[in-house]
Amino acid sequence: MSEDQQLRVSKITEGTVIDHVTGGQALNVLAILGIDGSGGEEVSIGMNVPSERLGRKDVVKVEGRELSQDEVDVLSLIAPAATINIVRDYDVVEKHRVERPSEVVGVLQCPNRNCITTKDEPVDSRFAVLEEGVRCAYCDTIIRESIADHIHVD
Amino acid sequence: MSEDQQLRVSKITEGTVIDHVTGGQALNVLAILGIDGSGGEEVSIGMNVPSERLGRKDVVKVEGRELSQDEVDVLSLIAPAATINIVRDYDVVEKHRVERPSEVVGVLQCPNRNCITTKDEPVDSRFAVLEEGVRCAYCDTIIRESIADHIHVD
Question: Any idea where the Aspartate carbamoyltransferase regulatory subunit N-terminal domain is (chains A, B) (predicted)?
Answer without folding.
Answer: 7-99
